[in-house]
Amino acid sequence: MRRGRLDRRLWLNTIISNDPRMVTVSNRLIFSHLEEPRVHRVFDILEGDAEVQTYLRMSNEMVVKRMNYNDHGPVHARIAAGSSLEILDLITKVVEPTTVANGICDREGAMLVTMVGSYLHDVGNSVHRSDHIMHSCYLAAPILERVYSRVYPDDPELVLKMKCETLHAIYAHEDPIKALSIEAGAAKVADGTDMAEGRARIPYRGGKVDMHSISATAIKRVDIEEGDDKPVCIRIYMDNPAGVFQIEEVIGKKIETSNISSYVELVAIENGREIKTVG
């Protein structure tokens, strides 16, 4: 890791967590993973792109305002993008990204596939929650070509290859679908990490008291760190054991079909006491 990136991450982690080896999942995490020039540029493009931002805002128009569900818009996109790059960074300390191992692109390209797949995975909610992964794919496809062409202007074949890999990451984020790359797996698990303070990935209706809403509000913080036995340890802090429902039904199911289950462990902590370990 380059010195500048290390210093910046230690600074960010000091703000976010008491342990410099650990980061807390939030919409600020992405800013500790923008040292690579193309990654930084593409993130800025996505943040400033009228089409992308409109789809994300319309996703919340549909699922939050009309269905009374939890956030699936711009904030979720940033949270998922940062978390996915954190997970990818830890896993690829021990194994190459799939796109690199298969000769598709270099490590920076693998980061782009992961980040962009995470950022755009929910844009299809702007059409409808039902079948949103398919809607996300057809809406994202022209965006991917347009964006990747700006950072790889002299390699149209690479642009198409990365488009395919990113669409795979978008499509595979739904629980039952098997992810076939480390990049897609990192994006999939990252989606599930956005669950603190009522930001659960199971859509639940605001104001309705049921297991979904009780378990969602039980989770207070999610941290990602390098594990002792596995490259990635995700620690989920809760003030009510009902939060275990979110772990099992959301992130647990995503890990099962993520293709990175052998690299990830989950630890549930209730009021400072470890109550459950998965993986």
Layout: helices, strands, pairs:
Blueprint: H1 3-16, E1 22-24, H2 37-48, H3 50-66, H4 74-91, H5 98-101, H6 107-120, H7 132-151, H8 156-171, H9 182-193, H10 211-218, E2 219-225, E3 232-238, H11 244-256, E4 264-270, E5 273-278
Parallel strand pairs: 3-4
Antiparallel strand pairs: 1-2, 2-3, 4-5
Helix pairs in contact: 2-6, 4-6, 4-9, 6-8, 6-9, 7-8, 8-9, 9-11
Gist of the model:
53% of the residues lie in helices and 11% in strands. With 279 residues, the chain is an alpha+beta fold.
Tally of extended strands? Answer: 5
Instruction: Tally the structural domains.
Output: 1
Compute the average pLDDT: 89
- The helix content is 40-55%
Portion of residues in beta strands equals 5-15%
Order of helices and strands: HEHHHHHHHHHEEHEE
- Enumerate how many helices there are, as a single number: 11
